[in-house]
Amino acid sequence: MCETGEKCDSGNDNVPMSEQDTWKDVAPISQDDGANTICPIAYTDEYREMMGYLRAVMSKCEVSQRALDLTSRVIVVNPGHYTVWVYRKKLVEELGSNIENELDWVTEISEKHHKNYQLWHYREALVSRLLDPKAVSEMTEEQLVVHPVIRRELFFTSSAIESDSKNFHAWSYRQWLVRTYGVWEQELGFIDTMINEDVRNNSAWNQRYFVLMGDGRGRPTKDAGSPMEGSLADSEIDYATDMIKLAPNNESPWTYIVGLLVRHAPAKLYTVLLPKLKELAADGSEYAAAMKTTPFYWSALVDIYEQQAKDLPDQADDLLAQASEVCDVLATDHDPMRNKYWEFRKDQLVPNI
Amino acid sequence: MSYLFSYDFRYDDNEYETETSVNQIEVEDRIGKLYCRLVDPQTLSNGGDMDDSKHKLTYPKHEQFIRDAINGLSSIFTALDSSRPWLSFWCLNSLDIMGCEIDDMLRQRTVDTLKTMHCPSGGFWSDPWQLPHIVSSYAAVMALVLVGSEEAFQVIDRNAMYKWLMEMKQPDGSFAVHSGGEVDVRGIYCALVIASLLNIMTPELVRGCSEFIGRCQTFEGGIGPYPGIEAHGGYTLCGLAALEILGDADRIDLGRLARWMCARHMAFEGGFNGRTNKLVDGCYSYWVGGAFPILQKALRRSPKDDYLYERAALQRYVLACCQDTRSGGLRDKPGKNPDLYHTMYCLLGLSLSQHYVGVEPDKEFSDTVSVYSVPVRMMQWGALPAGLQVIGAKSNVVRPVHPVYGAPFAPLARCVKYFYALPPLAESLAQK
């Protein structure tokens, strides 16, 4: 029996469906757009024909191998046809098709259509069926990462991301995978690889935050709670500043470290991050020139001084004055295109009453 | 006339090449070639003075591009076969923004087409063999709003629409885009646009929407599709506009949002990118650029203060880089082909950077708690004439648009007038 419709039908591609034995009992339903339709699409005869048969089998809710094969053909031509995916899901379930083979087929489709929403959503459904997350909730991460289903998904997504490093859908899918099965620790290794390949890959930085902090409220599998452990904050500061050294004018590590600390360890902004940044920017440091010309350094100082002023009211006036000066320098020298923003940012700097 | 520009604004890769920096510099080189024709060579040593007086929006070309699409699309567009309501929205909206005529015949064609895409049990689909889709429903409703006739409004069964939207509603406040479909901030935005225009907002429908959007604001400050996922221009507009409909923009950290949105403005190119360290793209002229007026209101900034970004720079990017002056239509960036999607979003972005749209502070309606205040609050938005800033030819000025809905004001006002004169939903549901 043919598992992947594409292979099965490929020999018949040149024979119209109306002449194929498989379809002789089916009357295709044509699409009635009316003569007056706006933006009519000049479908190919082949597409028009296969859609006619698709409508016919869908209207009968037919569950059959030929229907499954037909959905393969439609999806190859038009993967955005979300209804076909829903129909296919039902067919695969009711026909008891081999899910592994189905995943292989989706992988094939993904190579051509990696920006498509449906196939990733469909993949989630298949993987959940193959491996019930509840059934593995007692397994450790060490056991999970060698489980063939998880291992394949990790491999599949890493190759998708390696060929298109900021693929939004692939990264989102990976979050689903990590969250659903609780394979958090392995993810840091993957993120490191991606950041090492391109330190400017912001999707990887976002993933780093996700792995350490969940969706901003702690990892769902661990105790939720906003403040992060001090040692973790310190090691993230070390990591981010090391990455900043490679190319200071890179928004990602700056946004990452400041965003992380503002949310989860605000005092570390001025107790740990600030001295490190000052050191990098100090006269004689090999990074001084690059640090002082990137707006991200100055922008971080504004955030840091503002937090410090909040926490240390007796020094607030002085700190806010410094922050305000930095805003001026940004507006005129380091980031003139965003001068309106820096004026606004300056106006935001008000003492806590 | 020259607005802020400098070759010094080019990306500094600190002589450390990665895939991102190589791509960025390649795009800047391509755009630099277009800009250098507009820069006085004598001024190059000072970063370059740009002559911004020559930019021209080539209306007839773009109009023809759209009218050709209305009359027929090649088989390449089969990929959009399940998004067909979008085609009418992109075309009609682009024509309306440019002030081109939408005659009775085109209106009739649109109504006839969308009738075939209306699902009797609620929502819109491309054809009756598909499932109704929330994003297609948004596009279909918007296209009918642009037609603006009673016949157009009557295509929509609002009771069925409401029931269907409630079927798509998830326990966490979000909406699935179709039965069995994915869940993200787009769903909330489309549902709220539809509901606010059709007078079917209820406390049940809006329950949990703000909380969900709040969870989608990332540590960077922008909004992602789903909690945990990277902040992205498209979802940021959807999230912020949805909060504006709900009167709940204070739900998110507006300061971090402002920082992130301003960082999306590309200093050299003048347009916006959609994510940190990604490339400029004309469509973000709306997705990010169009979020600034909403941000402005959320921050309670006075119309006297301009938006937080350089409006002239965005106009320059759209006019000099996004127009395909040969074939008509607008595009992502130089070197890409124009399409209907980019045509509409570039035009929306252009409009929102020319006009200052907002709410006169003394007119601001303070009741933001009740969902029933929505039509009043939404219709207070308008273009404030003193805020007009147009670069290049005077004729470049296009119609002002509502940033929340992404369409000109007049058709929206007609729609609200029609649907808010109908009996409230509870009453009409009881009558059935």
Share of helix among residues of chain B?
40-55%
> Which chain pair shows the most residues in contact?
A-B, 80 and 82 residues
Distance between the termini of chain A: 75 Å
Low-pLDDT parts of chain A are 1-11, 221-225
Give the strand tally of chain A. 0
Mean model confidence by pLDDT of chain B: 94
Rounded radius of gyration of chain A (Å) = 27 Å
Main sheet properties of chain B: 2 strands, antiparallel
The averaged pLDDT of chain A comes out at: 91
Secondary structural class of chain B? mainly alpha
The radius of gyration over CA of chain B amounts to 21 Å
Strand content range of chain B: under 5%
Helix content of chain A: 55-70%
Ranges of chain B with pLDDT <50 over ≥5 residues? none
So how many helices of chain A? 18
Keywords:
heterodimer, A: about 350 residues, mainly alpha, 18 helices, about 65% helix, elongated, B: about 425 residues, two-stranded antiparallel sheet, two-stranded antiparallel ribbon
Describe the structure.
The complex is a heterodimer of chains A (353) and B (432). Chain A is 66% helix and 0% strand. Residues 1-11 and 221-225 of chain A have low confidence and may be disordered. The radius of gyration of chain A is 27 Å and the shape is elongated. Chain A is built from 18 helices and no strands. Chain B is mostly helical and 432 residues long. Chain B has helices at 19-36, 59-71, 84-97, 104-115, 134-147, 150-153, 158-168, 185-198, 203-206, 209-216, 233-246, 254-263, 284-287, 291-298, 311-322, 340-354, 374-379, 409-419, 425-431, and strands at 39-40, 49-50, 357-358, 382-383, 401-402, 407-408. A two-stranded antiparallel sheet of chain B has the order 1-2. Chain B has a two-stranded antiparallel ribbon with strand order 3-4. In chain B, helix 2 runs antiparallel to helix 3 (84-97), helix 3 (84-97) packs parallel to helix 16 and helix 15 packs antiparallel against helix 16 (340-354). Chain B starts with 18 loop residues before the first helix and ends with a helix. Classes of the chains: A mainly alpha (353), B mainly alpha (432). The interface between A and B is large, with 80 and 82 residues. Chain A: Residues 1-10 have a biased composition (Basic and acidic residues). Chain A: One of its GO terms (cellular component) is CAAX-protein geranylgeranyltransferase complex. Chain A: Residues 11-20 have a biased composition (Polar residues). Chain A: InterPro entries: Prenyl_trans_a.
